[in-house]
């Protein structure tokens, strides 16, 4: 059955109007010792209306489903998520008057569940991150709904050529800097969609910028990138938003120049450092990004290179006040944050 065209046109107008009401996200300078000759920036994706970089992806996934004739009036929309995508999708589902179901691991932060429910979405919790896919598929099938499937569609639903995607926006905002063409852009990979968009855009735009990924413990992306294997599985990540227990189709290793495993304690320590230095508290995946960006900066300094590195502030720390920002919770998880925190502070002191 073909969904009603007038309804689709109206739905797409609504989604576009959300962009028209919004300003671009800021590119913030992150101060590092000036003798490095390397400049570091964070693109603050926490300032989207739904608080994370997933605002971009969720809108793209809805438009992709709408233009493909898969979403119409009354379609139940379903997603498998580690939380942030579902928050943004719940927001857009409510905007379009659609029922929304999020399937997530039971470990997902309480705050994200509250946000999804606050937007009128329903949360289905499964024991482990590896179980979300089949359950989301099942719910979509049983309800005659549509599975947005970010882990498959992220790399195809986003306009990588431009249309103010994240890459386009970064390059425009770098135009007035002393090193406008970043040597590196650093991101974590959850779907892998952000790195795919940035890397494709860089090739299309003809710039030399390379793309690096920080991968948390328990994720398979580093091994998949290093070995070329797509059948590796792992226990999954303890850094919300990034790292996966299987190699997702939307993760494109062929366009990624460097992948580095980052210890969880280092990610959490670096999250605290970003919060202290920028006065904006991020989530832990932003810490992972800082660790990789600082290692790349150190390598550039060692080779006598100057230039710029851009990375992302992926989401806000308010979502994690009872987890990564709670010292008791962090200690109970067995994360020893003090040593990496001291090391990071020493490096940044020059
Ligand atoms: C999804 C996500 C990422 C990674 O982005 P992808 O485009 O899915 O690879 C990083 N941090 C957070 C908090 C996220 O939710």
From TrEMBL:
Keyword Cell wall biogenesis/degradation tagged: no
InterPro entries: Cds1 (IPR047586), Cys_Synth/Cystath_Beta-Synth (IPR050214), TrpB-like_PALP (IPR001926), TrpB-like_PALP_sf (IPR036052)
Reaction it catalyzes: L-cysteine + H2O = hydrogen sulfide + pyruvate + NH4(+) + H(+)
The protein's enzyme class: lyase
GO CC entries: cytoplasm
Modified residues (N6-(pyridoxal phosphate)lysine): 54
Entry EC number(s): 4.4.1.1
Chain segments annotated as transmembrane: none
Cofactor requirement: pyridoxal 5'-phosphate
Keyword RNA-binding among UniProt keywords: no
Domain Tryptophan synthase beta chain-like PALP: 24-315
Name of this chain's protein: L-cysteine desulfhydrase Cds1
Organism, as annotated: Subtercola boreus
Gene (name only): cds1
């Amino acid at each position: 059955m073909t969904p009603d065209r007038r309804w689709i046109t109206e739905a797409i107008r609504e989604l576009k109007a959300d962009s028209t009401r919004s300003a671009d996200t800021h590119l913030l300078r992150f101060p590092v010792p000036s003798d490095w000759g390397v400049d570091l920036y964070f693109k603050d994706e926490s300032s989207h209306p739904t608080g994370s970089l997933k605002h971009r992806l969720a809108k793209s996934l809805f438009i992709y489903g709408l233009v493909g004739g898969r979403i119409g009036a009354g379609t139940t929309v379903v997603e498998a998520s580690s939380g942030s995508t579902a928050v943004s999708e719940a927001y857009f589902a409510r905007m379009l008057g659609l029922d929304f179901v999020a399937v997530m691991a039971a470990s997902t932060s309480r705050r994200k569940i509250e946000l999804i429910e606050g937007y009128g979405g329903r949360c289905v919790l499964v024991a482990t991150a590896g179980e979300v896919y089949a359950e989301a598929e099942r719910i979509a099938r049983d309800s005659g709904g549509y599975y947005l499937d970010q882990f498959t569609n992220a790399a195809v639903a986003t306009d990588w050529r431009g249309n103010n995607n994240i890459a386009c926006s970064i390059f425009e905002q770098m135009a007035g800097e002393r090193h406008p063409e970043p040597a590196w852009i650093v991101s974590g990979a959850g779907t892998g969609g952000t790195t795919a968009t940035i890397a494709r855009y860089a090739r299309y735009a003809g710039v030399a910028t390379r793309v690096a990924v920080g991968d948390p413990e328990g994720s398979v992306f580093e091994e998949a990138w290093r070995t070329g294997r797509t059948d590796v599985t792992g226990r999954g990540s303890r850094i919300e938003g990034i790292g996966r227990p299987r190699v997702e189709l939307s993760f494109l290793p062929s366009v990624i120049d460097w992948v580095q495993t980052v210890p969880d304690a280092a990610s959490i320590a670096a999250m605290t450092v970003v919060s202290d230095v920028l006065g904006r508290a991020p989530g832990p995946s932003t810490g992972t990004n800082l660790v990789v960006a600082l290692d790349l900066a150190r390598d550039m300094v060692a080779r006598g290179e100057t230039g710029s590195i851009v990375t992302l502030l992926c989401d806000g720390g308010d979502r994690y006040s009872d987890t990564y920002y709670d010292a008791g919770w962090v200690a109970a998880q067995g994360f020893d944050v003090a040593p990496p925190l001291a090391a990071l502070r020493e490096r940044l002191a020059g």
